[in-house]
Every structure is written in structure tokens, then in C-alpha cells.
Design goal:
By secondary structure, the chain is an all-alpha fold. It contains eight helices and no strands.
Length: about 220
């Protein structure tokens, strides 16, 4: 059962990354070619893509308790709890963490998540939970002022290390700071930093996944 659950979660997250990647693309895509007009490799990928989307729809079906085609906050909490392997089984996310997921994913602002918004939520939450330990260690490393927060110059060093030593632009640093600095004091506390980093990290992951996994648009 554990292996089956893990396989299902991997499928859901793969589907989420692809759907989010597509959602963020610009308009103007060419018309879809007919299935019999593409190579066998593209046909195979199209079938795999259909399976991944089915996995995401299955997640919606499983957690959509009231069957209205959307997940409300309580349903989202249940989903996030089941997806989080970084904490003891059954431990729910904090209210602040749920607030962050909803703020990132709920583009319509109606307090619920539709299928596309669900893909965004799953992708960002997966990044947050799997990278949390590394991000916490780096926060301690680069908080040279000992304030428990990162100033802009410390933030750039932190993001650069998370980026494998590759340079991070000032624009990226400013974006992360803007997303995370909800208190408006020019610095970020620990949770703000972790959430903003996960959103920044996921954005790259989503676009990469779309390029690598999605050849049929």
C-alpha cells in the first residue's frame, strides 16, 4: 500500500508540474495535430501525458469531499497532510503554511482550488516539503547578522547556493523579497523565506518539467 501511495503521489506531482507549466505559457500555440499525424514517440508521450492528467483528476476526485469540482480549505489541508513526507504521518500543515499555499495557487481569489490551481498548489507544496531541511540549514548559514532573517545581500548568497552556485539576478532577488516580505520591513522571517524560496524554486521546476515532459501541447 505504501508503494502504491508513493507511486500515485509521484504521478500526481508530475501531472501538476505539466499543468502548471502549460498554464504559465503564452497564448498563440499552433493547433493540435491529429493523433495519427504524429510520430510514435509523440503518440507515446501523449498517452503518458493523459495518464498524468488522469492522476491529477483522481486526486481532485479523492479529496473533493462535497463533489463540487473544487477543493475548499479543509479539503486542501487534508491533501497537503497526505502529501507531506517530511513530517510525522498525519501532522497537518500550520495555518500560515496553508495560507501561503492558498495565496500562491488561488488565482481566482475565491478561496477554493480548481484543477489548474490544484496543480500549482501541489507543485509548490512538494518543493516546500522536500527542500525544507536544506533551506533551513542555508538560512542559518547566511544569516550573518544573527537576526533570524535575511537581508537583501544575504538573500542573494542564499539563493545562489540553492541554485548550485549559478548566479542569481538582482531581479530574482527583488522578486523573492517582494513575495516574502509580507510584513513590509525589508527582511523576511523564517517561514516567509521558506515559502518564497519554494515558490521561486518551483517556478523553475515547472518550466523545466514542461520542456522535458511535454512535447504535445
Amino acid at each position: 500500500q505504501v508503494c502504491g501511495r508513493a507511486s500515485t503521489l509521484v504521478s500526481i506531482m508530475a501531472a501538476a508540474a505539466i499543468i502548471v507549466g502549460r498554464h504559465r505559457r503564452n497564448a498563440g500555440q499552433p493547433p493540435m495535430p491529429a493523433f495519427d499525424q504524429v510520430s510514435q514517440e509523440r503518440q507515446r508521450e501523449a498517452l503518458q501525458d493523459a495518464k498524468r492528467k488522469h492522476a491529477l483528476r483522481r486526486a481532485m476526485h479523492t479529496y473533493d469531499i462535497n463533489k463540487n469540482g473544487r477543493l475548499d480549505r479543509e479539503e486542501v489541508v487534508k491533501l497537503l497532510t497526505d502529501l507531506d513526507d517530511s513530517t510525522p504521518s498525519g501532522q497537518q500543515p500550520s495555518e500560515e503554511e496553508v495560507d501561503w499555499v492558498m495565496s500562491v495557487a488561488d488565482n481566482s481569489g475565491d478561496g477554493d482550488l480548481d484543477i489548474n490551481e490544484l496543480g500549482t498548489a501541489i507543485t509548490c507544496w512538494h518543493t516546500f516539503t522536500t527542500k525544507r531541511g536544506e533551506m533551513e540549514n542555508l538560512l542559518a548559514k547566511f544569516d550573518t547578522s544573527g537576526s533570524g532573517k535575511l537581508e537583501a545581500d544575504e538573500l542573494k548568497l542564499y539563493l545562489t547556493e540553492l541554485n548550485g552556485g549559478k548566479p542569481v539576478s538582482d531581479e530574482e532577488v527583488a522578486w523573492v523579497m517582494k513575495v516574502a516580505d509580507k510584513s513590509g520591513d525589508g527582511a523576511m522571517n523564517k517561514l516567509e523565506l521558506l515559502c518564497a524560496t519554494a515558490e521561486w524554486y518551483s517556478y523553475v521546476e515547472n518550466n523545466t518539467a514542461a520542456k522535458q515532459c511535454c512535447v504535445v501541447c
